[in-house]
């Protein structure tokens, strides 16, 4: 009987030198030698094939992303030979060397074996000879890189190299709040590892300690991406051309999250000093006069002569205090996704304010938008109470305003003392007031409540 010698590839991978030339920097190669009870294996480990693009350093905390192998990283290999066909294995890095943790690699001596594929794809695993998504993982939320591998050292070593690896996709780095969950809506996006373009996609991502979250894939020309946090739109971007393979893009969805009025003031002043006109704030639900005074002083102090330049988003807070933004000519738009109540004269004489969005708003008070001469769009939640006893809410403003009301808005009943309350038995939509474009005693250019009248 023919004497057949079997060989198994066990715990070791030797990584070839990988030289990464990064934009504005070149990383040195580290060499480590690990000794085991079976073999002396020299590991020559180069930098992880990181995205080397200066754009990744343009927003917030400098971040090149992953740049080196880390404990727990996995490589997915296929080995092929005539006697045993294709076999599939997973190697895991333990911080010093690579161990075979799944599958088995076997071949006959004299029967040449080769490795057609080796992947670094954290979202995937081998299943019945195919790469499939792990449970709970979503394509496009991590890398999908294919390297090269060959058997060396009398069949006892596998040499893996990502030196020639080319990403067939781009990376979008989203700079936002650290260690927070965001949602990302995409249009015409092909996730890394997939060949199917999504016309519309939705991703839930958690940022790291530096405030970075990532999407991996290809955006088409005119593709759109929208980043949201706690219901607030932080950033919407439309790509003017298809994203390039192996290139990193950065999207600014940063948010100021401060614990005191002084911190708020300092952070806003720095933003404005840096030439930023988009300011996003994350405040406590009960933030009050002190915090809004800090916002007001910071913007007016840093840009005293600006007119209609600042786009402000305020997340978390539920009440806008009296005169919070009084005479702030700097404001162009204010978005407040969590605000339920706007107090007296809150936006009085904001003469260059054009857009206010408060989709959760329930209560309005006297003179809230008095003399906001350039207002063109208002978005409210289901208003159930309005107090105009001290001054009409929309006094001395243009009628050229598009008002968007909640689909659940009820008809408002005016009492003798200029108080308005909701009649929960009658819908505002298609009512006489709706058709005549009247709300809380003011006539608008158009009013949308399920249906639009103009």
UniProtKB/TrEMBL annotation:
Pfam families: LRR_5. It comes from the Bacteria. It comes from Segatella copri. This is Leucine-rich repeat protein.
């Amino acid at each position: 009987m023919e004497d057949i010698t079997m060989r198994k590839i066990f715990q070791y991978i030797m990584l070839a030198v990988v030289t990464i030339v990064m934009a504005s920097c070149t990383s040195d190669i580290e060499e480590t030698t690990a000794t085991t009870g079976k073999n002396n294996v020299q590991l020559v480990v180069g930098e992880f094939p990181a995205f080397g693009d200066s754009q990744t350093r343009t927003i917030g905390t400098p971040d090149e992303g992953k740049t080196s192998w880390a404990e727990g990283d996995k490589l997915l290999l296929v080995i092929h030979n005539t006697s045993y066909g294709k076999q599939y294995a997973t190697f895991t890095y333990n911080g010093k060397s690579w161990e075979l943790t799944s599958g088995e690699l076997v071949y006959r001596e004299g029967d040449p074996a080769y490795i057609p594929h080796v992947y670094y794809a954290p979202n995937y695993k081998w299943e019945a000879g195919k790469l499939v998504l792990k449970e709970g993982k979503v394509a496009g939320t991590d890398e999908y890189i294919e390297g090269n591998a060959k058997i060396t050292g009398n069949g006892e070593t596998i040499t893996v190299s990502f030196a020639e690896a080319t990403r067939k996709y781009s990376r979008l780095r989203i700079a936002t709040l650290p260690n927070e969950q965001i949602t990302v809506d995409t249009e015409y996006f092909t996730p890394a590892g997939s060949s199917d373009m999504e016309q519309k996609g939705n991703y839930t991502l958690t940022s790291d300690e530096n405030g970075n979250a990532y999407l991996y894939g290809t955006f088409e020309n005119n593709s759109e991406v929208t980043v949201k946090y706690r219901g607030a739109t932080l950033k919407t971007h439309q790509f003017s051309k298809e994203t390039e393979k192996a290139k990193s893009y950065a999207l600014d969805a940063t948010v100021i999250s401060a614990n005191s009025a002084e911190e708020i003031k300092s952070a806003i002043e720095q933003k404005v000093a840096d030439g930023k006109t988009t300011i996003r704030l994350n405040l406590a639900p009960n933030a009050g006069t002190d915090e809004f005074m800090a916002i007001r002083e910071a913007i007016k102090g840093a840009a005293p002569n600006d007119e209609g330049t600042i786009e402000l988003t305020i997340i978390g807070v539920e009440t806008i205090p009296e005169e919070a933004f009084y005479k702030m000519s700097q404001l162009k738009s204010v978005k407040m996704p969590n605000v339920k109540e706007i107090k007296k004269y809150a936006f009085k004489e904001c003469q260059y304010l054009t857009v206010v969005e408060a989709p959760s708003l329930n209560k309005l008070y006297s003179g809230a938008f008095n003399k906001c001469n350039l207002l063109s769009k208002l978005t409210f939640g289901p208003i159930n109470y309005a107090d105009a006893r001290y001054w009409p809410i929309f006094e001395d403003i243009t009628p050229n305003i598009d008002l968007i009301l909640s689909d659940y808005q009820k008809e408002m009943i005016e009492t003798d003392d200029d108080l308005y309350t909701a009649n929960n038995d009658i819908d505002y939509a298609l009512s006489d007031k709706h058709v005549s474009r009247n709300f809380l005693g003011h006539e608008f250019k158009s009013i949308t409540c399920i249906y639009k009248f103009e």
